[in-house]
């Protein structure tokens, strides 16, 4: 299927959903409201990349619902032809996805399509309840069409066969698709009938011939007729119809089952229809309400703040893969996804989960870090022996995706282990992951440049190789956390060694990471001695990641002259969004939808800057204003936070981002406590 809009424009996700218990945890659904993205010429809302068993492998892509009106000879698609749309959750605690689309036919007749989506707790399936309403009664055909995107990543078999077939049994019609490992089955029901009024398996993008796509048959032909095609192999789409006579309103249910074999996938889909949407919804609601009852809920008494707080926690939990890690996001900036697991992002999510009392998920995420740590004799493409470190990010099965060395992804996991142990008071946590943290600390101890500072590494923005400010601070924090872990285990000598190395690095921190007299002023920079230059250069520009040197890494005080001079520069128009107080990563940032420095900001960067403003005394109300007012300007239609916003605060790039959700939770929790939550240990007299 060749969509008429350019999918090189980011496909932001306004909402995601999964379950916090049961087999539904294996399913991750995402939905996108194109009407909220001014850079895309579409106004509709659809379910998009949906995965099962692995959050980074989609089983189908666009889930289209199309309305055919024979009197008007017009087919309207819910992505491309809607005139208005919305995506939301049922509530902040229950991520039942609601999609609403409005249509106007050529003669002015209006129609609406409302869809509700839940995942089953009891089985690996999802159910979609649809209701179409028309201004006038008439005969209609409602079509369902989706791309079978069962497609592994490059580390899997690139020649895997993607197959689909339609089966008609005495009880139901079903379409099954698979890649020999992952299977899905889709069925529909209307007034007790589980039949398709026409069905087609086609080849995506083929507009003519025997293999022409279901999209071409349904949308391009625009005649209300499907030429049945029962099977195919390759890059496939599939569609089927539901014909109804003389109606103004019609409701129907579609269920999709997932499994590792065809019969089980069919069983799950049919069982979802047997149970009914409301039954599965009730179990879904109960599972989510039960989960929220076990964590901090609505902590402030301020409706807007508590709504975003609960939604942030819900999103983080929904992004949890069955491996125990949490994917960074579910969006597609261009032709790739963010459905990978970054150790750094895990660390901040662990910090947020602990702050909210979600100890079980935090423990699981630490265990995930332990499981994927590099423990063998492995040398990367720079010739660095990586024993004790982590890869830059991971596929959800634990295999490496990007592989550069980032020190916040070495010191950070030690910090996450230390914080989980400290917050739970459980020495079992200390013992279970002690070897993990010790291996990481041993790597850091050896990663000295010979002059009293951490050797070169990639910065957190994954652009610069050098002595990054944030990565170096994370390395110092990691060693200080290790010292406390080692003391608790009776390894006093190792604790002293870690503290001494951390203190030497801290003593040299400003020498490497702080600059005076740059075109911007006096400030911490992205990185010292960058391998490559830039405009502005990484060693001559202020960087929001530097604020993490205060929180959570606790290497530079918030009221230190160096930190104050850096945060004071955030008023520079080159760094902050014009119409909303949200700073970007650094002035001149080109990681934007256009690939050039656009006016805008990153909510997570503003969060770290606001903590410095708050604790330095420059703005005692910075956190309160952030969580009460500013964050509300930066959310998706489902009130979730993105990676980046445009100059006016509207979502501009990559939503929703779990790191952004985590910082919101942490700001609320820090404000309640009256101090930043989760500061790493500082310098001690014993060191």
UniProtKB/TrEMBL annotation:
Domain of life from the UniProt record: Archaea
Keywords, ordered alphabetically? Hydrolase
SUPFAM superfamilies per the record? Galactose mutarotase-like, Six-hairpin glycosidases
GO MF entry, a single one = carbohydrate binding
Gene3D superfamilies on file: 1.50.10.10, 2.70.98.10
One Pfam family named in its UniProt record: Glyco_hydro_15
Using the record's annotation, list all stretches that form the GH15-like domain: 320-515
InterPro entries according to UniProt: 6-hairpin_glycosidase_sf, 6hp_glycosidase-like_sf, Gal_mutarotase_sf_dom, GH-type_carb-bd, GH15-like, Glucodextranase_N
Domain Glucodextranase N-terminal, by residue range, is 74-292
A Gene Ontology biological process in which this protein takes part is: carbohydrate metabolic process
Q: Which family does it belong to?
A: Belongs to the glycosyl hydrolase 15 family.
Name of the protein: Glycosyl hydrolase family 15
What is the scientific name of the source organism? Halapricum desulfuricans
Gene that this sequence comes from: sga1
